[in-house]
Amino acid sequence: MTHFDYDLFVIGAGSGGVRAARIAASHGAKVAIAEEYRFGGTCVIRGCVPKKLLVYASRFQDEFEDAAGFGWTLGERRFDWATLIANKDAEIARLEGIYKRNLDRAGVTIFETRAVLEGPHIVRLVKPHKTVRAKTILVATGGWPNVDPELEGAEHVITSNEAFHLKALPKRVIVAGGGYIAVEFAGIFAGLGAETTLIYRGPKILRGFDEDVRDSLMEELPRRGIRIVTDKVFTRIEKTAGGLVGHVTGGGRLEADEIMFAIGRSPNTTGLGLEAAGVEMARNGAIKVDAQSRTNVESIYAVGDVTDRVALTPVAIREGHALADTLYGGKPWVTEYEMIPSAVFSTPEVGTVGMTEAEARAAHAEIDIYKARFRPMKGTISGREERMLMKLVVAAKGGRVLGCHIVGPDAGEMVQMAAIAMRMGATKADFDRTMALHPSAAEELVTMREKWTPPKG
Ligand code: NDP
After folding, report:
1. Atom of ligand 1 nearest to the CA of 311
2. How far apart are CA 398 and CA 430, in angstroms?
3. What are the start and end residues of each CATH 3.50.50.60 domain in the chain?
4. Which of 111, 136, 211, 216 has the fewest C-beta atoms under 10 angstroms from its C-beta?
5. CA distance linking residue 34 with residue 214, whole number of Å
6. 264: Cβ below 6 Å to ligand 1?
7. Torsion on CA atoms 323, 324, 326, 328, rounded to nearest 10
8. 117 vs 191: CA distance, rounded Å
9. From the CB of 261, is ligand 1 less than 6 Å away?
10. One of 3, 247, 405, 438 is an active-site residue; which one?
11. Per residue in 170-223, pLDDT tens?
12. Does 438 participate in catalysis according to the annotation?
């Protein structure tokens, strides 16, 4: 009988890998995990968690401004980037410690090194050099921010990886891209006081989101001092004595102290030995897997961003958990990808779940739209102009709520709760029967009575 050192060897200690390792070990499997950087992966170390901390920091500005209308007089305000980054780093170190301890307590063997595949059952650890054999291997190496290597001067730009460790808050910053990361970081930089420009290649940011959400942010972000440059990309980045100059299509130039690229992320598969092990990949380097997260090689599985299915932390966690339960817990199940809620932590925030209006129109013969745009109560006294958006997309036949889209304070929190009802198949009548919680913004979700009709003409 072939001898294996481990039942399961996990490469990558991010959200998906750690969950799979811990659950597999709790089911009695002999598990090892290798991580070349820090435990916790993108989400904990240089993604969701530190990002949200910076978002909180950036929103104090609003509170200070709004306070005046409520009678407060504030003293001198000063923001210190170094304090924020040091406190953020301490919190991330604390979380990383918890991740490691949890693995340890679960009985998982930890290797703090890069690991490379050498065959369907063989993993080579780089430092110390060692080869181990595992019955099953899970690749959970996540993704990596894209920068166009052909772009002249690309070496001068940063990505979200570096943005978390800047020595100082740039006075002028340009963020390239129009997706989650670009919009979130533009909000962070602007809220903290940097002169911020967002440059996007299309006419309207957040492609793929509901059109009303996109329109709403195109209106609200400039109100917060974010300059949005559309239909342009960088053709060359130049370093000058005064900072950086980004040359753009059409001949313009934009000056800044930092230029951050947030133009998507690619699966982290380079140099992993996947070819040697015979694992099939898509053209963008993503590992191809089936519903059970199994690759074309029977003993090798992959979960999370490296598979380029839905690049969200909770999805990777589910995929890792399902795999461990299925292989070692005698409880087979697969991740379901319907009604995944998500938030863009811009300011104002976006929360969304289910179909956009356009998707629903394509999938259903007839749909009804309910929407409200209003000034949140706090804005009445503070004088803030910002409008909130609430939108429900409903199937005309049967009344099922297909989509819920919110822009405004706590949009993510509200959408998480709406997602439960929608996952259960709630109809507009169910929403209407639900008693409103007054006064709140969320009550709009259960009090919208009038179907929206497009303006004539
Ligand atoms: P996204 O895919 O969300 O956005 C990429 C953006 O870059 C799009 O606007 C895209 O334009 C643009 N783009 C792509 N290629 C180029 C190019 N060559 N030149 C110029 N612009 C380009 O990626 P992100 O990097 O923002 O985030 C990666 C993923 O991480 C997200 O999709 C999301 O799944 C996840 N994430 C989730 C967060 C959350 O839940 N809050 C937060 C951060 C990340 P176009 O639309 O025209 O293609």
Report:
1. 34
2. 11
3. 6-144+266-328, 154-263
4. 211
5. 40
6. yes
7. 150
8. 44
9. no
10. 438
11. 999 999 999 999 999 999 999 999 999 999 999 999 999 999 999 999 999 999
12. yes
